[in-house]
Design goal:
By secondary structure, this protein is of the alpha+beta class. It folds into 2 domains: about 80 residues, Arc Repressor Mutant, subunit A (Orthogonal Bundle); about 70 residues, Arc Repressor Mutant, subunit A (Orthogonal Bundle). Helix content is about 45%, strand content about 10%. The protein has a 3-stranded antiparallel beta sheet with strand order 3-5-4. A two-stranded antiparallel sheet has the order 1-2.
């Protein structure tokens, strides 16, 4: 029996990503190095045959996922709507993700508005979790992102979050798009003066 095939079956029936430690617990008759090697075989196998699914490391574990390029076709079949978040939810989630551990008061200070309802919604969706209480007067709850957050956004861990520099690069408008419109009709060419030849036939 192939160890790669065994692991493939385990992944197929798993409801959430499985860590290497969990795989070692389930497959205790195999060595850890053997399991790691089998994982590499499965990753390479998907890539070599240009499969519609691939094995990826996400949320601290491994999971089979459809490749992003095929999303249109997958949603036709399952008729599922992608998760939608309000602007306030996304802003709050981003603050928690980048500033965790963080209290509600700190989130509200950064956003400038009450965030109680939004935090409650994120807790219900299991994207945010309570990490404990801050050791200050009043002992406010402190929040952080959950494993489900990593899974939904396809992140291996919190280090995989884009940096501020990368986000700013996405927002930067290329120079050619910022170029001012030429003042047509006011080129500043004297009457009878030839315009420069831009293109040759």
């Amino acid at each position: 029996m192939s160890l790669s095939a065994i692991i493939e079956c385990v992944f197929f029936t798993a409801e959430a990503p499985l860590s290497l430690d969990r795989l070692c617990e389930l497959l205790h008759e195999f060595e850890r190095d053997e399991i790691k090697a089998a994982l590499n075989v499965l990753v390479q196998s998907c890539d070599e045959r240009d499969s519609g699914i691939h094995l990826v490391e996400v949320a601290g574990g491994w999971q089979y996922r459809t490749r992003p390029g095929y999303q249109t076709y997958v949603t036709r079949h399952i008729k599922a709507k992608s998760a939608k978040f309000s602007q306030s939810a996304l802003e709050t989630l981003a603050i928690v993700a980048y500033r965790q551990p963080i209290t509600r008061a700190e989130v509200e200070h950064l956003r400038g508005v009450d965030c109680g309802g939004v935090l409650k919604s994120l807790l219900e969706k299991r994207l945010v979790k309570i990490l404990g209480k801050k050791d200050i007067p009043g002992r406010p709850l402190i929040y952080g992102t959950s494993k489900e957050f990593l899974e939904i956004f396809g992140l291996k861990d919190l280090k995989s979050l884009p940096t501020l520099k990368e986000i700013q690069a996405l927002e930067d408008v290329p120079h050619y798009e910022r170029q001012e419109e030429l003042p047509l009709g006011q080129v500043g060419v004297s009457e009878g003066e030839d315009l420069p030849l831009l293109f040759e036939a």
